[in-house]
RNA sequence: GGCAGCGUAGCUCAGUCGGUUAGAGCAGUGGAAUCAUAAUCCACGUGUCGGGGGUUCGAUUCCCUCCGCUGCUACCA
């Protein structure tokens, strides 16, 4: 009893996936989103609705510039080449974009300028002066990624100006030690620069109304975004100093739009390009008065841009607002975050090349769909589950139902769907299921779609089994004919329901039935019709097919499991912790801190500074001269601007008092403990 | 430490805006059948819905607290 099926259908639907950055290859995380989007789009197409699927490469910004520099080609060449690769990778998984464009286009420049102009007219842009590193040699301001230096926290060398890859600290480039320009290796100087900011605060009431007054966002995301607004909307810097790969801001000498300004605008400019190529009008999609539904699919990492900045941009430029933003979580591999170093980073092209099975892309689509609900939890891609899920549902359940039915018709009914009337009770169940599945598709509850399809397949197998047509053939062939007609029609319905998810499997059934299926074809209609050549629609994976792509991931998992059993570690594990005896040479309170003492300790010949959180329990004079146990190889940390190069061992007694560990008899300082 | 989220069968997850015996798929055990892709069908689950407390006629669902995990963050044990 679903109502969605009859609810008002918009005249047009515009659907987008997040624009992949032109610096990276497409990986399975991208595909996780693309499959979800593509299934949604194909469902609406199947229903005969006007739906356009728009995507593009996000091409601007510093990382692109750097990558091009490294490869000794121009940024334009780089993004052009990447776009081809991206299109090829998506095509390998049947992602059916109506257009896959680029943000480095004249259309995008036009809309970026237009939106900026409107923000300005609405008095939302202000200028502020900040100081930034400037390279006198290269005559340019240096963005974060153009500066390398010492991490202010852990002192690691050769870190970028925004984040330390060694200790994970984030900071401003002006905090770094020994900053160098990445191009010429000279030291930059600080220089004043004016920048443009959007005053989001002025749009607070609009944003609150948009976020809480519509159902554009899932509930948890809505709460999340609301709390950001409650915390106070900060000004958003939208300019970067040139040279910068992007669009120059009109009316400025050498300022460019920050990549995150023009990236989402790519949704509009790609639509524009599509419309020009197909004789349509972009206003019909993006005009504020149009009844087109705009649906974005994005990951939870970019909610900030899509739920705050983007609506503000659209609203002020008088464009249509998104009616739905589906936010999904991340894709893990074998329970682990995708990570290049751990080998759990699977590229789309690797999956295509290394999985030795012609239906591999379809199976992945199916597997993804079987896990997708409109929630923001992370999903896990898991080899054994991929194997069993596709084998049981697609091969054993649906594939086998198809095969046992079609082969039976071939053998006993002269390769025809027999001339008999189907079982009406089954037809009714399928029709009801059709309404239910439609409502799941509308809500993007693909997991439920798959479950329902699976249940119908089971129903078919049970019906077949209970009817036992092989027995009926001996006594009353007409009864067997009814069973066959019923099962063929059920299989046709399953093919319809699966079409958005596994178009090729459906295509195979369509060929054998001699039909192209639309949504309406899920109702029973076939009898007394010749069948094409029977062909198995699914050949399941064999485990070896997947070994290569998952090799690295499985290995990393095994290592973890071996080390993690029952919380015990082996001796080598323990040896990674470097414990040493040290003598406290000096101690003083850290200003403005209630818990911290600044200590100088002697570790053999070395002296180190350690910031210890023991001020509540030890006075400086209590511990000077004492011997303590120190973790000597702990990653340095910065507390109150002071570097801490180790940690003291202490235990808390029942009164909550912190007690330092001392050797029972004096030992030489710097001696290893263990 | 703070903020947020999560914790439901061996595994992957649904669900519950308080109310009959809490569900699905997979895995497991036993059986049937042989049209079929060693596929199918049938039967089998006393899960303290993380622990404890509270509100209520009634809580897995609401509130508090504790434990555990994840993310962000922090005055680092």
Q: What is the domain total for the residues?
A: 3
Strand content of the residues, in percent?
15-25%
Give me the CATH architecture of the largest domain, please: 3-Layer(aba) Sandwich
Mean pLDDT: 85
Which fold name fills CATH's third level, the topology of the largest domain? Rossmann fold
Radius of gyration: 31 Å
CATH homologous superfamily assignment of the largest domain: HUPs
- Give the CA-CA distance, first to last residue: 69 Å
Q: Which class do the helix and strand fractions yield?
A: alpha+beta
SS elements, strand count: 28
Largest sheet: 6 strands, antiparallel
| Residues in helices, as a percent range | 40-55%
Short summary:
This protein has 20 helices and 28 strands. The strands form nine sheets. Strands 19, 20, 21, 22, 25 and 28 form a six-stranded antiparallel β-sheet that branches.
What does this protein look like?
The structure is a single chain. 42% of the residues lie in helices and 19% in strands. The chain has 20 helices and 28 strands. The protein has 674 residues and is α+β, with helices and mostly antiparallel strands. The chain folds into three domains: 6-123 and 204-230 and 258-322, HUPs (Rossmann fold), CATH 3.40.50; 348-530, Isoleucyl-tRNA Synthetase, Domain 1 (Orthogonal Bundle), CATH 1.10.730.10; 577-673, Nucleic acid-binding proteins (OB fold (Dihydrolipoamide Acetyltransferase, E2P), Beta Barrel), CATH 2.40.50.140. A hairpin with a 2-residue loop joins β23 and β24 (642-644). The structure holds one RNA strand of 77 nucleotides.
């Amino acid at each position: 009893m679903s109502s969605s099926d009859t609810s008002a259908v918009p005249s047009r639907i515009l659907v987008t996936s997040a624009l992949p950055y032109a610096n990276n290859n497409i990986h399975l995380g991208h595909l996780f989103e693309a499959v979800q989007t593509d299934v949604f789009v194909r469902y609406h197409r199947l229903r005969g609705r006007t739906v356009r699927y728009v995507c593009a490469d996000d091409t601007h910004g510093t990382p692109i510039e750097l990558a091009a520099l490294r490869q000794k080609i121009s940024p334009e060449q780089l993004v052009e080449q990447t776009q081809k690769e991206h299109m090829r990778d998506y095509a390998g998984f049947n992602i059916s974009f109506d257009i896959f464009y680029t943000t480095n286009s004249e259309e995008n420049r036009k809309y970026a300028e237009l939106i900026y102009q409107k923000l300005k007219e609405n008095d939302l842009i202000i200028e502020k002066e900040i100081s930034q590193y400037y390279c006198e040699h290269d005559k340019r301001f240096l963005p974060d990624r153009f500066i390398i230096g010492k991490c202010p926290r852990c002192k690691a060398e050769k870190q970028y100006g925004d984040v330390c890859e060694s200790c994970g600290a984030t900071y401003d480039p002006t905090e770094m030690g020994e900053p160098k320009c990445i191009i010429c290796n000279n030291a930059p100087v600080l220089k004043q620069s004016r920048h443009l900011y959007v005053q989001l605060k002025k749009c607070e009431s609009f944003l609150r109304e948009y976020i809480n007054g519509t159902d554009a966002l899932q509930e948890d995301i809505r709460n999340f975004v609301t709390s950001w607004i409650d915390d106070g909307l900060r000004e958003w810097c939208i300019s970067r100093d040139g040279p910068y790969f992007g669009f120059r801001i009109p009316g400025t000498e050498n300022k460019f739009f920050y990549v995150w300004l023009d990236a989402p605008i790519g949704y509009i400019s790609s639509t524009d390009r599509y419309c020009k190529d197909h004789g349509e009008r972009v206003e019909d999609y993006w005009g504020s008065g149009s009844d087109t539904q705009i649906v974005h699919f994005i990951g939870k990492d970019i909610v900030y841009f899509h739920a705050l900045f983007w609506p503000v941009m659209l609203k002020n430029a008088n464009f249509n607002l998104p009616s739905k933003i589906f936010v999904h979580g991340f894709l893990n591999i074998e329970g682990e975050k995708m990570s290049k170093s751990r080998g759990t980073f699977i590229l789309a092209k690797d999956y295509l090349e290394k999985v030795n099975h012609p239906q591999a892309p379809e199976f992945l689509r199916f597997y993804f769909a079987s896990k997708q609900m409109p929630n923001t939890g992370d999903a896990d891609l898991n080899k054994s589950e991929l194997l069993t899920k596709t084998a049981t549902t697609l091969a054993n359940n649906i594939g086998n139902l198809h095969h046992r039915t079609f082969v039976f018709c071939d053998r006993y009914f002269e390769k025809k769907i027999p001339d008999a009337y189907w079982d009406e009770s089954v037809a009714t169940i399928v029709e009801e299921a059709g309404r239910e599945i439609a409502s799941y598709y509308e809500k993007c509850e693909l997991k439920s779609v798959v479950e329902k399809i699976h249940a119908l397949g089971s129903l078919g197998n049970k019906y077949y089994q209970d009817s036992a047509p092989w027995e009926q053939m001996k006594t009353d062939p007409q009864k067997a004919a009814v069973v066959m007609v019923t099962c063929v029609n059920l299989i046709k319905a399953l093919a319809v329901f699966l079409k958005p998810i596994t178009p090729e499997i459906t295509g195979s059934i369509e060929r054998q039935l001699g039909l192209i299926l639309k949504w309406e074809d899920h109702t029973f209609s076939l009898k007394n019709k010749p069948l094409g050549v029977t062909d198995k629609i699914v050949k399941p994976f064999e485990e070896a097919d997947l070994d290569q792509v998952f090799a690295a991931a499985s290995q990393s998992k095994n290592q973890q499991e071996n080390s993690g059993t029952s919380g015990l570690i082996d001796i080598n594990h323990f040896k990674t912790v470097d414990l040493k005896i040290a003598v406290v040479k000096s101690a003083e309170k850290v200003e403005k801190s209630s818990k911290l003492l600044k200590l100088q300790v002697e570790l053999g010949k070395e002296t180190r500074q350690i910031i210890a959180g023991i001020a509540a329990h030890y006075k400086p004079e209590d511990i000077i001269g004492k011997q303590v146990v120190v973790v000597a190889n702990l990653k340095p940390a910065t507390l109150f601007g002071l570097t801490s190069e180790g940690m003291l061992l202490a235990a808390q007694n029942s009164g909550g008092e912190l007690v330092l560990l001392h050797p029972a008899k004096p030992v030489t300082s710097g001696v290893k403990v263990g």
